[in-house]
Fold these 4 entries.
Entry 1:
Amino acid sequence: MTTCSVPSPVSPCRYAPRHCSARRAARLIARRVASSSRRRLDDGFVDVDNATRTRRAFLANLSVATALATVPFGGAVVAAETFVQPLAAQLVDAKATRVRVMETTTLSGTVGIGGTSSLAVHKSLSPPLTSITVPMRLDRAGTYVVEYEIGGTTVRGVLDTGSPFITMEARCSEVWGCLRERDAHRSGFDDTFEVYGLQQDGVTRWVLGDVTFTGVDGALERLPDTNRTDESTGTTGTTTGSSGIFTDTTDTVRAPSPTRTQFSFPELSFGVTSETTGRAGSSGGGVASAPNVGLVKHRKNWIRPTFLEQTDVKSFSLDFEKDQLTLSRVSLIPRSTKAQVFPLVDLRPLGAPVFHYAVRVDELWINGGRYRPSDGVVKPIYAVFDSGVTGCLVSKKLFYDSAFQFGTYESHVRVRDENGTRNSIGTSLQTCTGRCLFLAIPVDVEWVGFEDCHILFLGLAFMYGKGGLTVDIDDERVTLGRA
């Protein structure tokens, strides 16, 4: 075989001149392509259709481009010198929530004595916005739906604490919305086929788009109004939240109302599905085939990026009394609170693809009787809080080894909180009425390594009686009740 030997960069090619000329030409073309790619990156251009480009590379370039765009007067060179950061810092900046106050709170009524309104005092004491509260609506299938925006289009999805992604259907729907071509563009991720507990999606295409939630300042929304009497004057009034602002109700000054706010997450990766269909055992339609707003944050490396992973949201709360969702950039459960606060268990080492919001179960009771395995082999049982489920999903081995298989009219689990106290979490056909739907059905749990465990996915029927669900994701704590 004829070979081409190039001992040094300046040595002539002595054999097969045509081959050597071709190699030199290829090297020149490669240099020009690389130089052109560097210039495009410097201009803020990212070829997101290139399948080899990762989310990390995109975020790194995005944060610099965003910083350049936000410089008010400086030139590009000065801006680049100011905002170029190490990769880790760029990734943190790219996850930062863009907060927008849509309107200021107005005051109705007269101003108190001294000419200073309680609203002005309150606004001066208010901390920076760290959370947003948005309304959620219970649909006919018995699950909660939240409304938000992708690009400039209003869409809806099922609020699911058991799923990791935001997904939308490719086809238009009066219920879920209709994405336009300009609302999103291709990412560098290959298409996938996603399967959930009771739903499987068709081909899922991973795209990038701006996701925005509109609501009110979550901190003000959670402040209670407590009636009290001013001991110095004997007048009756209200104390607004933790700020300690006293308002004399003899005047007509009102406590400040929550401020309209937007949380925006730019260039967020989400899935667009060709179709959604219910799996065996699902109810068809509704929860079994719908786009999701998944609130599971952490995952295994082979899973696509989750919604919350791409943000700086650390905690969330579902309020079933007010039908509200709160997304927070700080913890919502006080660190000093131990009662009825349960430590989360990461099931990923046992085969789960994501960090479900799961707790270890001490005892499982079904129809008034405690579950005991038929073969006498005791396996650990875990319970996952899953708002995408109305009743309860039970792993098949547990379902057919217990009273679940004969029909269930009552079930509860006993879980120890951080104080070591055993707490009961359950529901029954007698207490689960009105909007509550209780049904226990078996489900395949196809996690490799989970064969020696049992799992329950506890749905809304198990949470309604507590009034809410609050999860401090980064602190790995959960409590049932309002934040």
Entry 2:
Amino acid sequence: LVVQGLDSSRGPPPEKQVTLAYLSAPRLGNRNQPDAPFAWPAREFLRGWLIGKQVNFSVDYANQQGRQFGTVTTDDGTSVSQVVVA
């Protein structure tokens, strides 16, 4: 997920990429590899549900390459990870 900060008083709001922690999602393909089954519907589900909405996130851990993994919840406290798995 790409999350944006709220403060845009000094230009575009800052962005941060957070991967949902403890989940393994189907991967989108590339030129050499086709999409994994359900990759596109999973992406579109998240996009349709969360785009433009305010969310809260916390970074749980990062790997050696610096990729950050975390927990994301909606304003009403709904866990994005739990909804995706359900």
Entry 3:
Amino acid sequence: MMKPLPMLPLLSAWLSAVLVASIGTTSSTSSGSSVGTSVVRNALSDHLRHASIAPRGENILLPSRSLQSTSVEGTRECNAQIGLIGRDEVLAVLNILYSEGGTELVAYINGVLAPLLKYDVASYKICGACLDFDATSAASSVCEGYGSDALHSSLVLVPIDPDTGDVVQGSLRTSLLYHGTRIDVDDVATNTFPASLSEGLQELQASGDTSLIEALLGSMGEALPGLMHASLGNLAIVPDYLGYGASQPTHNRTYFIRQSYEQATLVSWYATQAWLSQASGGCSEMEGVVSMEGTSEGAYAALASSSLLNDMGVRILGLRLNVPVASPEAALVYMMVQYDGGLISPTKDNAGFTAFSPLSAWAYSQDLPLVANSGYANQTLLAAEWMVDDTFERNVPAWLESPDPIGVEEIVALMPPFAPDVFRPAMVQLARDAIAANSTTPCNTFADELVERGVDRLCEASLDNDLLELLASGVMYPTELCYSSGDTVAPAFQFTDD
């Protein structure tokens, strides 16, 4: 299994996520994830505020459609409340997170931040489908093809007036938070986010067992920043991607395929907008202003979706990309560097990372119209010997296909000693040739040889979903790249030369 991330740096990133809500944030690339009092103070100087007026809500549902109260067996019901977390509990979580941050930071949290945490936070599982909404012309293309009939779900955190018990009235700004790679398909916020924190906090305070901190906060995952944002008076949305949550029984996952993340974002945005109007009786609405954050796969999802929302006219206050991977072909190069160097292996405590290889290969081996190599059996990213229909141990699609994919431990147990063996050998050789040429872009470096090598359609699929050009062309909103200088899985040099 993968080693847990160090607690304090991970939680520092949680509080610093509020920084993207500041209008004055500038584009940057940062190393490490520690945060100081000045950063928190500057971020909160322009925190996400809701308007004092109560505008008329707008129903964007098509006349024949309604938000569906369905659920997957054994999971939470769609468009229903999960639970309620009090503002005092939100503050207690903050103090737990930053108990090691020094007396100045703790004092600042309790003296300055605490009075701003005015609202309780209700959690909901909100669901919808492309077919429910009248998408704008700027966004309609993401609802074409695979996933157009999927029931998407997302965790939505909502500010609740503690005096009335109602949704805060006004025009609410939004935080969109995207989760990193999940091999275990059930490990998403709509399933894991706790209905209540009272019991966990009481047990922690009574026992002093610090291992309970990770269990308590780990259940919230990428929704942690949203907890504070909602208590400040804003919405927070954590989308389940296609093939997770409500769409898990009916659709396979994709991985680093741009349109599927855009689709999940679009439906989550529209479904939350429609739900909020209904839940508040038209007294609350989404303002059309958003901050965005994602980690790993979530950073890719956030970057792709930011372009979509920007085209829709949504104002993006900031975009924070944590250990981002923005290029499928570059990701393969980095993967080969790690495995050829023996940095990741089934015998190490990072063995869980070996499960990323079959997921990556399978994503570009499904017969999906979203990718250019669809329908080309001789150009799947999975090697033919790992797609043997009548042998489960050699049938990666059977490991990962919905509705019953196997978990990370089972996958690791089935993997070959050298994980890249699951990839098509021609692509592995292309990546190694790029490494020898000191290049992270094999498809571009060897563009004249792709047909001869038999990987032209694979490279086309990869380049179609490459987001590096989006960053290079200069996004029109403040963007922060956050990485660790010691990271060997998603290194910073994919974006910078130093």
Entry 4:
Amino acid sequence: GGAPGGGAPEGGGFDADAADEYRQLDAKAVAALQALPQLQATQILLELRRKKGAIRNPSAYVMRATSNATGGGEGPRGA
């Protein structure tokens, strides 16, 4: 067996809804998000939107969240 290859998502990938969040991010954060499965990336963007007022550096937040999502973080993840 083998894992199926992931093609590029249709329609340019992410929700147009998330465009607002993308505009706040630097290129590194966007690339990190795009490297994730779309569901995880969407969850991170939704979380970013929910915490909009509280997050001073959205790019740093995304970098940390993507690192956690790929197993780079330590400790249990609370919902």
